[in-house]
Specification:
mainly alpha, about 425 residues, 3-stranded antiparallel β-sheet, elongated, about 60% helix
């Protein structure tokens, strides 16, 4: 009777992607023991020579390692370095906008309380000056000085509109942080950064700098523009030839369907005719009120200063005290309505809301005008993003499909697209 004992050592098969065939290298060692009744006591060893994997595939491993290293290494290190430099600059801008926004918000509060204090103190001094004939000159000069200072400060504050400046910086800080997150995502997900990627990001940074400048003088945005336009903080898209969507030229794929295109086309019309135009009209209204208060405030303070000079005089004995006292109170009221109510900030908010709707329109039109659906953003993801910006569910976008018809008029649109702002 023979007993066979086999002891083997097998190495796992190794495959190389750079070679078409799979190679297996293994070694096995076997030992055969014969019992004493069949043959003389002894052991016959059958041993297959050991083949070392590292010796056999030394060149192959070097080749595979080299190819993997080349594949993982960035193909455009220069462009990646540029994008990282832009990311650092954007982060620095976000911090600067945040700091400057807090500073200009403090300006608004300090100027508001200072002007009110000046006007009310001057009004009080003018009112009691007649009761102290021995100190009439001192009270009159002090009152005139405070009224003049209040008028000058109001001219400066109305020119720069600190509340509007603060809102600009807050928006700029938020958008810079958002752009920084987009750049970080691009660096972490894209295997290759191209020159076009760097150029697109640079255009976004320049557009942000133009929309929300850091400097006060020069470069400050006009606070009382002749024409109210939505704020634009994104680069202008390259104009594409607009193609009328019909059943023949509609293409489906990449999440896009005929129904989704109709929804988006109708949504563009609603955003343009209702939401954007509504905020532009509100901006014009607030701008008109703010301009009226900006003119009347310093004018009233100046008249009050002049009237104070005629207190207890033969010419203005009857009207000068009344005008100076009432004028000081009116200055405080006007200043509180204008800067306490932060009309400049409200105007900037309306412009930014109109700009948001304009940006959404351009994004939708850019996708609809792209005839190759593979080059569009995924339709389902895009619809969800639009719905989130509008504050509605994706299913609610279906109601905009009926407005896609060219026969649709402004009178047919009863509701606004956005439920969020």
């Amino acid at each position: 009777m023979a007993a066979l004992r086999a002891q083997g050592l097998c190495l796992p098969s190794t495959s190389f992607s750079s070679y078409p065939a799979r190679r297996q290298v293994s070694s096995c060692r076997a030992t055969l023991n014969l019992s004493s009744d069949l043959s003389p006591k002894g052991t016959i060893n059958f041993q297959k020579p050991m083949i070392k994997l590292n010796e056999l595939t030394q060149n192959q491993q070097y080749t595979v390692t080299t190819e993997i290293t080349k594949r993982r290494s960035p193909k455009s290190p220069k462009e990646t370095a540029k994008l990282r430099a832009i990311a650092e600059a954007v982060a620095d801008r976000a911090e600067m906008h945040d700091i400057i926004g807090q500073q200009r918000n403090n300006w608004n509060h300090h100027f508001l309380h200072s002007i009110n204090s000046f006007a009310l103190s001057a009004s009080l001094m003018s009112g009691i000056s007649s009761s102290f004939p021995s100190h009439l000159l001192e009270f009159k000069l002090s009152s005139m000085l405070l009224f003049t200072a209040a008028a000058g400060m109001m001219l400066v504050v109305n020119k720069i509109q600190p509340s509007q400046l603060a809102e600009e910086q807050r928006n700029a800080a938020r958008l810079c942080k958002k752009l920084g997150r987009e750049i970080d995502e691009m660096l972490s997900t894209k295997s290759r950064i191209t020159k076009q990627d760097v150029s697109d990001v640079m255009d976004k940074v320049i557009a942000l700098d133009k929309a929300y400048p850091l400097g006060l003088l020069p470069g400050m945005l006009e606070k009382f523009p002749e024409h109210v336009e939505p704020t634009r903080w994104w680069p202008k898209r390259q104009a594409k030839q607009t193609e009328t969507l019909t059943d023949q030229n509609r293409r489906e794929g990449n999440g896009w369907t005929k129904e989704l295109e109709e929804k988006m086309a109708g949504l563009v019309k609603v955003l343009k005719m209702k939401d954007e135009s509504n905020y532009v009209e509100l901006g014009k209204l607030v701008l008109g009120v703010n301009k009226s208060l900006a003119i009347s405030g310093p004018a009233i303070a100046g008249l009050a200063a002049i009237a104070t000079g005629f207190v207890n005089s033969p010419i203005g004995d009857s009207w000068a005290p009344i005008l100076s006292v009432v004028g000081g109170a009116s200055v405080a009221v006007v200043n509180t309505l204008q800067h306490g109510g932060q009309l400049g900030m409200i105007f900037e908010i309306f412009r930014n809301c109109a700009g948001l709707f304009r940006k959404m329109q351009e994004e939708i039109e850019s996708n609809l005008n792209e005839t190759e659906v593979e080059k569009r953003e995924n339709g389902e993801v895009f619809a969800m993003k639009i719905a989130l910006e509008l504050g509605v569910n994706v299913e609610d976008l279906q109601e905009f499909a009926r407005f896609a018809s060219p026969l649709c008029k402004v009178e047919d649109i009863k509701e606004f697209a956005s439920k969020l702002i």
